[in-house]
Here is the input.
Amino acid sequence: MTDKSLELSRRNIVLIAVLFEVPLMLPFVLKAIFYNASISLSQISTKLLIESLFYSLVLLFVNIIFCGLVYRFKVYSIISFLEGVVEPLARSLNIYQAMIVAIFAGLGEEFFFRGFLLPITGLMVSSLLFAVLHFFYEIRKYLLLIVVYSLIGLVFGVLYERSNNIWLVVFFHSMYDFLALIYFKSRFSRNLK
Here is the structure.
């Protein structure tokens, strides 16, 4: 891939992320406007950022262990996802683009699944829908990952319900996605050498 085509694909990934995630934000933003849902930036504090970073690092650590087990026990459906989806995505983005993708994913998915959908459908259904959204194109192939992502959705949901602060899960999700993209970019780059 030439430098020019790589840059074009990077831009496309960022554009697709923004175009997909922004509409997910709208129901919660409208709910906040019309029903006084709590979305105030005053809820953001240093403590919240540190707590989000801590949760992100814990989830990243769990993910690294999980991926090691996946390769050790040759769980081919997950290996195909890692090598066919995660690797090309992580390798194609520079650090700034990874940050943009992660921020929009955290905002869009948390505003929609935790801020909007969770109060309507409950914790279990919103977590399952969160997982299915990630793998709707091949549900059978990625059934195990749907279970894993549902558990991650449960973690986000429980934290949101306990804190009643959408920003905690937005920052947690965004930081985790960013750290995971950087980790996988580093890991897959090492494998090429």
